[in-house]
Amino acid sequence: MLLMKDIINDQNKLIRTISKEVSLPLSKEDHDLLMEMHEFLVASQDEELSEKYNLRPAVGIAAIQLGIPKRMCAIHVLDYDENGEPTKSTDYALVNPKIVSYTQKQSYLKTGEACLSVDEDVKGYVPRHAKVTIEGYDALTDQNVSIVARGFLAICLQHELDHFDGVLYYDHINKDYPLVPIENAMVIE
Ligand SMILES: [Zn+2]
Q1: Which residue, among 92, 18, 108, 32, has the nearest Cα to 59 in the 3D structure?
Q2: How far does residue 119's CA lie from ligand 1's centre (Å)?
Q3: How confident is residue 159, by pLDDT bands cut at 50, 70 and 90?
Q4: pLDDT attached to residue 69
Q5: Cα torsion 163, 166, 170, 176: sign
Q6: DSSP element (H, E) containing 97
Q7: How would residue 86 be classed by pLDDT, with cut points 50, 70 and 90?
Q8: How far is the CA of 144 from the centre of ligand 1 (A)?
């Protein structure tokens, strides 16, 4: 099982590596790694397991965060009802995902973003495309997928895809005005 000690942070230059395309069909090694990454996310959002293994809750992880420069990432996003009970889970284990279209309209998270590889949260709004269409191979369902994502999911996917190019969320924050609302952008609560 992956643990926090397996994750590199932004002090490690490897995090800025441009990751390489992964050859398909997926090797057993790549498949197992991707499943472990997804399993990590699920455990990190499980109250008992996250406490037991001291995991920081995360909705996404890219292979480079384990020091492996391959264009693979996992996603585990839960929706909650008003009582805080999870109602729906969106899960992907993506290989070579690419943004094939996006809206000019932007969005950002009201609370700012966070990252397993950034130990201390950097405050500031991160502009993202409000809606993206992403194509790639999903190892969880063993098929090519075309994902039309909006809102929080769209932000998560763009954050993970950025990791493939060595980009961190705080690179996008306006250095002079980190907390000035971004004009015409949708605010995601
Ligand atoms: Zn990240």
Answers
A1: 92
A2: 11
A3: very high
A4: 98
A5: negative
A6: strand 86-102
A7: confident
A8: 24
- Per-residue pLDDT of 34-63, as tens digits, reads 999 999 999 999 999 999 999 999 999 999
- 82 part of the active site: no
Tell me, what's the pLDDT at 84?
85
62 Cα: distance to centroid of ligand 1 (angstroms): 7
Looking at every residue in the chain, the average pLDDT score rounds to 97
What residues have their beta carbon closer than 5 A to ion ligand 1? 115
Catalytic pick from 39, 51, 160, 189?
160
- Tokens 């990791």 identify what position? 163
**CB-side exposure of 90: number of CA atoms within 13 Å?**
17
